[in-house]
Write the structure tokens for this entry.
Amino acid sequence: MIQPGLRPIAEDGYAVFIVKLPFRFAPLESHKQSAVDDAIGLITAHPEYSGWVLSGHSLGAPLACRAVQKQSNAFAEMVLIGTTHPKQDNLNYLTLPVTKIFGSNDGVATPDSIMKNKGLLPANARWVEIEGGNHSQFGHYGHQLFDGYATITRSEQQSLTRTELLTTLHRVNDRGVEQSNALEPEAGPDSNRNSSPLAQ
């Protein structure tokens, strides 16, 4: 999803950071490496946050995979949306939780092609199929060439996707709260903002 679809997550109290891609899909290798470095650099630039969740849609997903490969201990969880990636890189060794979200009517990243690469992700990865969803409706643009036709609305598809993202963020945030309580049992909350941010 792009910015409008992520706004409700920010309104729920989570910091949302969007890595800007050159030409919107980082066509050159130098662009891809720069995007990966920018994603990892967010963590250094914002030490006030912990428990980072990294997400990527379509061609953003292989960049998310690269960032996790490069510095897996920097992220708490990863969510891949509407993508066949990883396709070449074996990430089944990862210890961080991974969620894969896809649409049943996606004609670009088809369910069959996604499942063909299932073994490249950890065995305990969560697989979430959005019935009636396609590729284009994860974002805010027109119907993409070769995509299937959705049988649910864009609003419905993005709402279901947000629910999964928020479930992930809540889970990471709850783990962080439990850890903080164990370390500082008398410390109370000093802010109404959740500590687990989303980078996409």
Q: What stands out?
A: The chain has one domain: 3-140+148-180+194-199. The beta strands are 16-17, 53-57, 77-81, 98-103, 126-130, 198-199. The two ends are 9 Å apart (CA to CA).
